[in-house]
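Take a look at the protein record below with the fold in mind.
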Amino acid sequence: MFSKLYAKWMYAWETALTTRDTNRIVRPLEWGFDWLKDFSPLAASADPNPDQHLTDAPVADSYDRMIAVNRDIVARADEFFGYQTPNDFRLERRHPQLYPTNVRPETLEQDAELRRQAETGEIEEADFLRFTSPVRSLYPENDTVNARWYPAHPDTQKGKPKQAMIVMPQWNADAFSHNALCTLFNSFGISCLRLSKPYHDVRRPAELERSDYAVSSNVGRTTEACRQAVVDIRSCIDWLETQGYEHFGVLGTSLGSCYAFIAAAFDERLQVCAFNHASTWFGDVVWAGQSTRHIRAAFEQSGLTQDQVREIFSIVSPMSYMDRFAAKPKRVLVVHATYDLTFPLKYSLDVLTNFNALNIDYVSKVLPCGHYTTGETPYKYIDGWYLGSFIYKSFKHLARAKTASALKSHITAKV
């Protein structure tokens, strides 16, 4: 009886949190072939007018074409997620700002207060890593990557390799989300780059209230946003290496976990992976999740089914790269929530099923809440404990392994 009452209460709370924002917009389906045509010839082929986005073509024809593009890109994914290291890395110092994605009065008041404090010098400036993303969009502000830099104090790094985490918050996160985790990891002697995802906070085009262009009913743009996020993560590792860092990890929440997974599948330098809410197929979450109901509406209006939506987002689905992820050993944490209405439970459990089938060594933790309620008391502290203890132990293991390897090499050399 209690468990049923608890579930009912949790689902009601989760629903209230996912429906409180009133600025979700249902936009029409756009196939977005123009976003992919520079990479895939199939996206550019049979296009009688390069200026047309083929939104007026029969849905069945465009669907078949997008499936072909997905197969082409997944087959050449090394190239798709490849890049040239940026040559304009720099640290900028400025006052942190909120960049809210909702229009609730309390959030707007918080944003206004932070702006006032910045103008009067009541809050300290912070360091941000900036560089030009190797993947370009149509928006200059989005193409300048932004990552708040949290360097660990030198005293906490003594006697061990320099270690760093890249932290990617959830979709539509404001600029303060997950900053507390970075501070926590600093106390372990682990530096952090809190990476702003494409179209988020300072990277968000002025025309948007929310970070809608990261995930939307424009299939090509959504795909390209994922590509940009993965390449941005890898570029951050390049910069960290120039700063003397040797061990790297990535933590992603929700949409951030999708980006983090694909980055880890294509970059073996990421040895520690924490996936905070995860799913196998991007399209299943878009279709079944409460947070993306406005995007599903666009697909339904065009006559697409869940199976079709799953297929057109194959490029950005962790399932497409599961074998590749399993090919190299990593220390992996997966956190899922029992009452999740945004990443429904069966899709999170599918991650574990596939990890088991591929013999991936992982730790599974379960939160007795939902997706949005993960950020509420007391669940945010439970989640923080899961993430913090795993990151601490994993990097400690890497440091010990390096010390043992160095000692073995020293002994061998003497013999």
Q: What stands out?
A: DSSP finds 16 helices and nine strands in the chain. Residues 379-414 form the longest helix (36 residues). Strands lie at 90-94, 126-132, 144-150, 163-168, 190-195, 247-253, 270-276, 331-337, 362-367. The mean pLDDT is 94.
